[in-house]
Write a structure and sequence with these properties.
two-stranded antiparallel ribbon; 4% strand; 57% helix; mainly alpha; 164 residues
Length: 164
């Protein structure tokens, strides 16, 4: 049974320490390092295959989500269109309701709402001002890279795994 990656990593670090400190003969440590290195390579290959498979499955799920969303949106548009079609026909024909064994369909008035003919004509007393703030990260990055100090901001860089 193969060891977990963290155990292989720990063994590798210990062997490197033993090699640096000359606590074991160099040939023995090198032979052990080659063995642990092979275990690490095998484990890395297995883990890489596993996460690549997971990423492929995620992509398939995302693709399915996109298709399902398009299907849902299409059904929603068609449903609204048919609802509006029936409403307009009932209004034109002045039929206030249709009763069947399965449904009772009625034309109802919606609550009164405000529509704007021209927003510019609305008095200021009815207007509210909202302020939004957006921080320009690209400008801050450029400024810091020039050598300037921007209070409250620092550049950071993380690492990622690249599979070729």
């Amino acid at each position: 049974m193969s060891k977990p990656l963290y155990e292989i990593t720990y063994e590798f670090q210990n062997l490197m320490y033993l090699l640096e400190e000359n606590e074991l003969p160099e040939e023995e440590v090198v032979a052990l390092l080659e063995e642990v290195s092979e275990q690490f390579d095998n484990k890395a290959a297995n883990i890489t295959g596993l996460f690549l498979n997971m990423e492929a499955e995620c992509k398939s799920i995302k693709d399915a989500e996109v298709k399902m969303k398009k299907r849902r949106e299409s059904l929603d548009r068609n449903s609204k269109r048919l609802r509006e079609y029936l409403l307009n026909s009932m209004i034109v024909l002045e039929i206030p309701q249709v009763k069947t064994d399965q449904f009772l369909v009625k034309v109802r008035n919606n609550p009164v709402r405000v529509d704007f003919v021209s927003e510019g004509m609305i008095p200021e007393s009815f207007k509210e001002t909202f302020e939004t703030v957006r921080i320009d990260k690209a400008a801050i990055k450029a400024e810091i890279q020039k050598g300037s100090v921007v209070p409250g901001a620092v550049l950071s860089q993380s690492q990622r795994l690249h599979v070729a």
